[in-house]
Design goal:
alpha/beta, eight-stranded mixed beta sheet, 6 helices
Length: about 220
């Protein structure tokens, strides 16, 4: 087991029900439920990642005295890749509800033998010395995540980069391992078999952006 890789589906949890519904072609016509399941999985991964962040003891005054509890030292920065990342990001924001957020627009161009990921929109806060959660729902080739990481570094050096996805392919994970040098970890709901000739994840779940918001032209 790679200690740098967390796979939600390898553990028994209700999260597997949400993953199953996302994959089920028979129910994917319900866009609202598809988006809600992405949001739920974001909440679950946010909870799991919260265990890895630094905490400090704080005193809380109650009506009858005081209570000492461990609280986050600082909220992470949430950065999402548009457009399927929106509901997934919202799940993280439900948990880290005081976090700064950033957004990166990425789109793919492809031919028979190659695929290129283009960045055409970037809106990011400073990330210097902060934990960053980079939200990319479909980690296929890994190019969009790698390109997004370069945009993040232009805003500072994070203390740790948490890369999160709903579904990941081995090819994408390999690319990131070979190219990311700062402290990072990979968090995914499911690790699938491979990419097909069109660079889509198999068995995957289809085009998450289209299933959330409709087919783009």
């Amino acid at each position: 087991m790679d200690n740098n890789l967390f796979i939600l589906s390898e553990r028994r949890s209700v999260g597997n029900h949400f993953i199953s519904e996302l994959r089920d072609a028979g129910g994917q016509g319900d866009r609202m439920r598809f988006r809600r399941n992405l949001e739920r999985l974001g909440e679950i991964l946010a909870y799991e990642i919260s265990k890895m962040l630094p905490y400090e003891s704080k005193e809380v005054v109650t009506p009858l005295g005081t209570s000492t509890i461990e609280l986050l030292e600082e909220q992470p920065v949430l950065i999402t890749i548009l457009r399927a990342g929106i509901p997934f990001h919202h799940g993280f924001l439900n948990v880290f509800d005081h976090a700064d957020s950033g957004f990166i627009g990425a789109w793919r161009t492809e031919d028979v033998n190659d695929l290129h990921v283009n960045i055409d929109y970037v809106s990011l806060p400073s990330v210097q010395g902060k934990a960053v959660i980079l939200i990319d729902p479909m980690l296929a080739t890994g190019q969009s995540t790698l390109n997004a990481q370069k945009q993040v570094l232009a805003k500072g050096t994070p203390s740790h980069l948490f890369i999160v996805s709903v579904v990941a392919a081995p090819e994408g994970i390999k690319l990131l391992k070979e190219n990311i040098t700062l402290p990072y970890s990979l968090w995914t709901c499911a690790l699938d078999e491979k990419l097909n000739s069109s660079f889509y994840i198999v068995p995957g779940l289809g085009d998450a952006g289209d299933l959330c918001y409709g087919v783009k032209e």
